[in-house]
Amino acid sequence: MNPLLREAYSTDAFRKSAHRLIDQICDHLAASFAGEHQQALPWQAPENAQRFWRDLAQQSPTIEEVCQHILDRSVRISDPKYMGHQICVPAPTAILAGMVTEALNNGSGVFEMGMAGTAMESHVVQVVARRLGWDEAADGYLTSGGTLANLTALLAARACRRLHSDALDGPSHSTSASPTSDWEHGTRQRLAVMVSEQAHYCVDRAARVMGWGAAGIIRVPTNPAFQMDTEQLPRLYAQATEDGLTVVAIVGSACSTSTGAYDDLQAIADFAAEQRLWFHVDGAHGAAVAFSDRHRGMLAGIERADSVVIDFHKMLLTPVLCSALVFRCGADSYRTFATEAEYLFSQQEENESVAAAESFNLARRTFECTKTMMAAKIYSLLAVHGEQLLEASVDHLHALASQFAAVIESRREFELAVQPQSNIVCFRYHGRGETTDKSSRSVEAAVALSQRMTLVRQALTEQGKFYIVKTVLRGEVWLRCTIANPFTSADEFNALLDEVERLTETLRPSLTERV
Ligand SMILES: *Cc1c(COP(=O)(O)O)cnc(C)c1O
Predict the structure, then answer these.
(1) What is the end-to-end Cα distance of the chain in Å, rounded?
(2) At 13, is the secondary structure helix, strand, or coil?
(3) Which residues carry this modification: N6-(pyridoxal phosphate)lysine (predicted)?
(4) 5: which of 181, 218, 373, 447 is 20 to 30 A away, CA to CA?
């Protein structure tokens, strides 16, 4: 063997490095959990970061050196000052399971290539299905992120649409068109999906990927709480039909990304049933509350969905990427990428024979061919700690978000966008002596306020102590926090607001000149 290969595969070297690396990771996490790092975001401009990593690659570093630099130069999600994007602090159990799956590198396209991974995955999917209120007919799989899961769900909706209408009409109304004719012949109709204007952008992207264009996304306005205004559904649907569109699906957000608002899933389910639409729930972020007795009520109606997406990497302690796409009627999951000939089976035959033969060959149903052994981390969390761990995470993060909202409301110059329904909190700072009363604010003042929030967020990022993001709501800029870290406390909430206040007041004189 080439000496380079022999060295690269040395288990002695691996053992020594691995022991040292575990200590490095543990030291990093312990300091992070305790909030000992100065910065949650050790900010570096892109060109500086690029130069650093290019130079390091020339210096033949050891793996310990490379890893230490990665630890030092990455966002510290495990630091309590991290309140940025929706991503969890991974639990050590899940990290350990991840190390094993990296070492094994089993795929899971076909069962024989991923026996453990595929079976663990099936268990995880069934746990989710029970939590959604579904029986053994439900089935699904894990896939690489909520974005891909939502696209796959809409592909399933497209494939199943006539089948669903036919089932409701009874066999006598059956059309001769195969449910998969889009897959075989390309889409001939102009198809569309209805979704809240507050939905994650990936739903819009999915519709465009499928060739439905901008007209294929019917954006439903939201009420003052940023939930889909379901009263407008009949009017928008009638308009779309009149315009020659065939609406295939309606997507409920549980919850939306910007503000964490939960759509009224019962009302959407009613409408979907009435119009025979595929009802998909984008629960990438918020379907996690299915694990919580206290918060499950937010999902009332989800049991009537045809498909649901849930991300384990948002609130559920699992490293990225780990998402489940679950179908109420598991047989639907086989239709997404099926060719026409496979529809020569009757539905019953298909349920029994195809599902039985193929349920463990996941690539038949997933977008991916090779897929990581994705289930191991969440499976390990469930097996070792139980579903109560997920419930504890959901409850704790929600309680922290409520606490943060209360802190914001207790400070006069701060304004809360909306009472949080999830662990997402949007707010802004008006400045000393400014009014928080919207009705008495001029358009110019609103623009200036948005500008200030943009600059404050930029200043916060470059300073790096806290990591938060921003969002645009009804045309105005708000600061946005996701309380993702269980170690975050009122200390960080107050310190963050102090910092926002200090930065705004420092920036304000120069800003006033500019406006
Ligand atoms: C995060 C999120 C997504 C995207 O999921 P990824 O796992 O990041 O691809 C989709 N929808 C909602 C509501 C989300 O919050």
Answers:
(1) 69
(2) helix
(3) 314
(4) 373
- Assign residue 489 the CATH number of its domain: 3.90.1150.10
Write the residue with the smallest CA distance to atom 5 of ligand 1.
146
Residue 313: inside a domain: yes
Angle at 137 between CA 136 and CA 142, to 5 degrees: 85
Which of 87, 142, 147 is the pocket-test mutation for ligand 1 (most atoms within 8 Å of CB)?
147
Cα–Cα distance, 489 to 34 (Å, whole number)? 11
**221 and 305 both lie in a single domain:** yes
Q: Is the CB of 285 under 6 A from ligand 1?
A: yes
Q: Going by CA atoms, what residue is nearest to atom 6 of ligand 1?
A: 146
Ligand 1 binding pocket mutation candidate from 307, 311, 422, 423 (most atoms within 8 A of CB): 311
Within-domain flag for 496? yes
Q: What is the mean pLDDT of each run of 10 residues along the chain (515 residues)?
A: 96 96 96 96 95 97 96 96 96 97 89 90 97 96 96 94 55 42 83 96 95 96 97 98 96 97 98 97 98 98 98 97 96 82 51 63 86 95 98 98 97 95 97 71 86 95 96 96 97 97 84 55
The pTM of the full predicted model, rounded to 2 decimals, is 0.93
Q: What is the pLDDT of residues 489-504, one digit of tens each?
A: 999 999 999 999 999 9
Beta bridge mates, 482: 424
Q: Looking at the structure, do residues 242 and 360 belong to the same domain, yes or no?
A: yes
Q: How many domains does the chain have?
A: 2
Within-domain flag for 432: yes
The residues, ordered by sequence, that sit 6+ positions from 9 with a Cβ below 8 Å of its Cβ are none
> What range does the domain containing 469 cover?
388-514
Q: What is the DSSP letter of 199?
A: S
Q: How far is the CA of 387 from the centre of ligand 1 (A)?
A: 22
Instruction: Measure Cα distances from 12 to 16, 66, 136 in Å.
Output: 6, 19, 47
292 lines ligand 1 (CB under 6 A): no
> What's the gap in Å between 303 CA and the centre of ligand 1?
20
Tokens in use for 246? 């065939």
Whether 151 is in a domain gets the answer: yes
Q: Is 280 in the pocket of ligand 1 (CB under 6 A)?
A: no
